[in-house]
Amino acid sequence: MSKLLILGAGTAGTMAANLMRKALDDRPGDPWTITVVDQNTEHHYQPGYLFVPFWMEPERVVKDRRDFLPDGVDFVETAVSRVDPEARTVELADGSELVYDWLIIASGTRPDPSLVTGMAEALSARTNVHEFYTLEGATALKQALESFESGRLLVHISEMPIKCPVAPLEFAFLVEDHYRRKGIRHKIDITYVTPLDGAFTKPVASAELGGLLKDRSIRLAADFAVESVDGAAGRLIGYDGRELPFDLLVTVPPNVGQQFIIDSGLGNDAGFVPVDKHTLRSVEHERIFVLGDASDIPTSKAGSVAHFATEQFVDNFLAAIDGLPLPNSFDGHANCFVESGRGQALLLDFNYDTEPLTGTFPLPAVGPMRLLARSRINHLGKLAFEQIYWKLLLPGHKLPVPNAMSMSGKRPAANARPLQKV
Amino acid sequence: MPTNVINGRSFTVDEEGFFTDRSEWNEDLAHDLAALIGVDLDEAHLAPLRFMRSDSETTGTTPTLRRMQAVGGFDIKTLFALYPGKPAKKMAWLAGLRKPVGCV
Questions:
Q1: How far apart are CA A235 and CA A119, in angstroms?
Q2: Do A207 and A295 share a structural domain?
Q3: Largest Cα span, chain B
Q4: Which pLDDT tens digit goes with each residue over A116-131?
Q5: Distance from CA of A241 to the nearest CA of B (A)
Q6: B9: distance to nearest CA of chain A, Å?
Q7: Phi and psi for A197 in degrees, rounded to 5?
């Protein structure tokens, strides 16, 4: 009897449990147990956090984790304290210990406002400083937006990497649309504050999205490295001496790995586990793989990445337990719908080597989705994804999207056309 | 990949001018580059560059400002004073390293 232990029952951990149960059952020889550990039973549809401040009911994003795990997988509801890779044991918060032969770390990332002076205090007051990276935060922000009727609104990213790096931009577009529809847009001054040198990290997307900010009269404060938040005075203070006044600050705190990763000495300085970016195998420990946001791979921390990577992972894992070379090489593929307000969205499709480009997806010319351009169908695609997530993605069913990124339908950077006016 | 030449030494850079081959760098080159952006490289300026060189040699990536503070012991405010405006970018460029990106 061999033991596979999965830490985390979020997007990556749940998918891995489903795919590995099937793959290990189909495999001749020694039977395997699969145990999944998570600190609670609530699985959140995290893309929904973006919509909760505007219209989505908070209850809608929450389901029971156990309902998405297959038969033949044990679920343990406890926080993890420490991993001992030499002894191959995991110590749990209740003092018990689990033994493993192979370990999958899928514990994601979490916002840590304590890393910025004044931010945690300002957030907990729930007055003029808010966030939407937790369900409680997104729910409280809804109230704040309802009572905010004029003044300076900052949408702020503390530092990279963050989970779903386009979410703050989407929030900026949605909040602009929100106040436009309320008829008070002219009374609200919106600024997008980022540590990056533009709207996004990659040149073509940055130019396209930066143009859209300008079209919507959203100011851009770039290269802003935050030193502290002064909630009482309503000031966001940068290391370079810049002080941005605000009446409402919507911030994305620094994102880090889970505490047990840091305590186990498995993480880098932000608590993300260093892995081979093509196989997701821990650099230091060959019996540990890391799926989803918990690793240090240089691509977006996003559900789409977790999905593409986890499908590639199955064959690699089966090879690894037989001591064979790993057959699949993950390319860093990410595929993100970016809400742009006014009932439209853009679609980004990219990987480690290819930045998001314009064009059509998944088929050349036909589409039907347009890459890096706003359309209604992209927005509907984003909304439809909620059902796809629960019904197809988590159970590990195949989606009609290739795991490896394809250049088909993409316009090379040099020929990329500027964003068309819609 | 484009090539830059400064005072007779050539090195390959990416489209934004950052070194693509760290082995083509040395401190003399850093002094010449610093002059182009109006920085006089004294010991205070060189210390973070040296840390970035040695740190990235083991990690394979250009350290972030937070890492410079947490691991290197540098005060971020001081780095902003030494390299006004965009310290992370300026220092990576002077140290012959890739542009620091916090992923995508």
A1: 11
A2: no
A3: 38
A4: 999 999 999 999 999 9
A5: 9
A6: 29
A7: -90, 5
The per-residue pLDDT for range A212-227, each reduced to its tens digit, is: 999 999 999 998 999 9
B window 8-37, beta carbon within 8 A of A = none
- Alpha carbons B3 and B20: distance in angstroms, whole number: 10
**Any CB–CB contact under 8 A between B67 and chain A?**
yes
Q: Please give the DSSP secondary-structure letter assigned to residue A404.
A: S
Transcribe A100-136 into DSSP letters.
-SEEEE----EE-GGGSBTHHHHHHHTSSEE--SSHH
Entry pTM:
0.90
The pairing of beta strand A2-7 with beta strand A102-105: parallel
Whether residue A133 sits in one domain with residue A190? yes
Any domain includes A54: yes
Which residue among B59, B64, B80 sits closest to A239, beta carbon to beta carbon?
Answer: B80
Domain boundaries, position A375: 334-415
Q: Is residue A422 part of a domain?
A: no
Count how many domains chain B has: 1
Could you tell me if A120 and A200 lie in one domain? yes
Conformation bin of residue B2: beta by default, left when phi > 0, alpha when psi is -120 to 50? beta
Q: How confident is the model at residue A369 (pLDDT cuts 50, 70, 90)?
A: confident
Question: Do A57 and A121 fall within a single domain?
Answer: no
Segments of A194-245 assigned E as strands: 219-221, 226-230, 235-238, 243-245
- Which pair of structure tokens corresponds to residue A290? 């890391």
CA geometry: angle at A60 spanning A140 and A166, to 5°?
65
B66 lies within 8 A of chain A by CB: yes
Instruction: Note whether A184 and A149 are within 8 A (CB).
Output: yes
pLDDT at A415: 47
Which residues of chain A have a CB within 8 Å of the CB of B61? Answer: 298
Judge if A218 and A206 occupy the same domain. yes
Contacts 24+ apart (CB under 8 A), A231-236: A231/A118, A231/A121, A231/A122, A231/A125, A231/A127, A231/A128, A231/A129, A234/A128, A236/A154, A236/A156, A236/A193
Shortest distance, CA A300 to any CA of chain B (angstroms): 5
| Residue A89 φ/ψ, nearest 5 degrees | -130, 155
Structure-block tokens of residue A17 = 């449990």
* Residue in the structure block whose two tokens are 């699969």: A34
